[in-house]
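Reproducibility note. Readers wishing to regenerate the assembly model reported in the main text can use the exact inputs given here. Chain order matters: entities are listed in the order in which they were concatenated for prediction.
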Amino acid sequence: MLKIYIDEKKIISRIKSIAREIENEIKDKETVFISNLKGSIIFFADIMRFIKSNNIIIDFIATESYRGKESSGEIKIIKDISLDVFDKDVILFEDILDTGLTLQTLINYIKEVHKPSSLKVAILLDKPSRRIVDLKVDYTGFVIEDFFVVGYGMDYNERYRNLPYIAILE
Ligand code: IMP
Ligand code: MG
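Running the prediction on these inputs yields the following structure tokens for the assembly.
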């Protein structure tokens, strides 16, 4: 059963204010936005449309965790970015920060392999209750309790990504 947890209106209003924050920081400086597939696609698409800049470049990366429902800690990068981001300002977009293992792996990977001049992180949701690794992000949509959520890009077995709201799957 699906129960609406954060509705469309609330999501968009929060997205707009994060977009404003990002816009104020990047100004018109060239910035590479990277979306971690697949969960962040709607967050990514919505947020970038609210940012006024003629210097945003986008790319995609994809991760997979061997977890089922629980994190095993083994995160694999299954698709890399295709642009050269060496010495560029990068903002990485992710759907949920849960244990932190995915983001930690991604951040380390991007820094070590692609060597951007800066790397910031934007997440839609933060579930602090299950954190294993301590990491700091730059932009957060909502802090939520330990529910399994779907919709607005997020899935359960690849379903529900198309929901325009965030729902709790019971
Ligand atoms: P972490 O590596 O434990 O921080 O988990 C982050 C990844 O797990 C995210 O990229 C999500 O794809 C997935 N995830 C964690 N919690 C949820 C949830 O409640 N719903 C859907 N996906 C989730
Ligand atoms: Mg997922």
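We highlight two features of this model. The helical segments are 8-26, 41-49, 101-114. The CA atoms of residues 2 and 73 lie 28 Å apart.
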